[in-house]
Specification:
This protein is mostly helical. The protein contains 13 helices and two strands. The chain is elongated and about 80 Å long.
Length: 201
């Protein structure tokens, strides 16, 4: 570790590799962006500890960790370095994260693949990992739709307004045709159903 001072004012300590990254030397003039990056490098250990704490509490995607420490004041360059380092040692594992969501969806038994895909995208998981997780999942959409219909159909609000049940199932990512094949397409409110956007459109 090396002690760094700018204009005679000590900043703290920095690693040798950080000196090479920022490209500084004794007596060299630096601009504002380089100074900011230098400050971030000095704070590297602090940002690393923040990232470790965040990533260790529960599974997070790489982008979530990056955004978390950026909010704390870390530069994007340092945030990516830290996230890459945590990925390399397995603390950030997007494959495990995606599989955890798949298992949870399978246990619930009422989740469509589209709903699961949307949830994984919101977690900012790598698209290739999402694709593998969905393709290897054992989600049974047919059974999930039947279970969900069974749970909701007996509720008075849905009995009184079948169109509402149709819209609810659409909002959960199930296809129009699959829903219609099971509960039919309500004559009343058909236009409202087909004209209302869902999160999957």
């Amino acid at each position: 570790m090396y002690r760094i001072a700018v204009d005679g004012k000590p900043l703290g300590y920095i690693r040798a590799e950080d000196i090479l990254q920022v490209n500084i030397s004794i007596g060299k003039s630096i601009d504002v962006s380089t100074y900011t990056e230098l400050v971030n490098r000095v704070k590297y250990t602090s940002f690393l500890n923040i990232a470790l704490g965040y990533a260790s509490r529960r599974l997070h995607s790489k982008e979530e960790v990056i955004n978390h420490i950026k909010v704390k004041g870390c530069s994007l360059i340092i945030a990516r370095e830290i996230a890459d380092r945590l990925c390399a040692v397995g603390i950030i594992d997007e494959n495990k994260l995606a599989q955890a969501y798949v298992r949870d969806a399978q246990i619930k038994g009422t989740v469509s693949k589209k709903a699961l895909e949307l949830k994984l995208k919101k977690k900012r998981i790598n698209p290739k990992i999402i694709a593998v997780a969905l393709n290897t999942s054992k989600l049974n959409e047919t059974n999930a739709l039947d279970v969900l219909i069974g749970k909701k159909r007996n509720q008075q609000s849905y009995q009184e307004n079948p169109a509402r049940l149709f819209r609810y199932l659409l909002s959960k990512g199930f296809s129009f045709n699959d829903i219609a094949a099971r509960i039919g397409t309500p004559a009343s409110g058909h236009n409202r159903i087909s004209g209302r956007k869902t999160p999957f459109e």
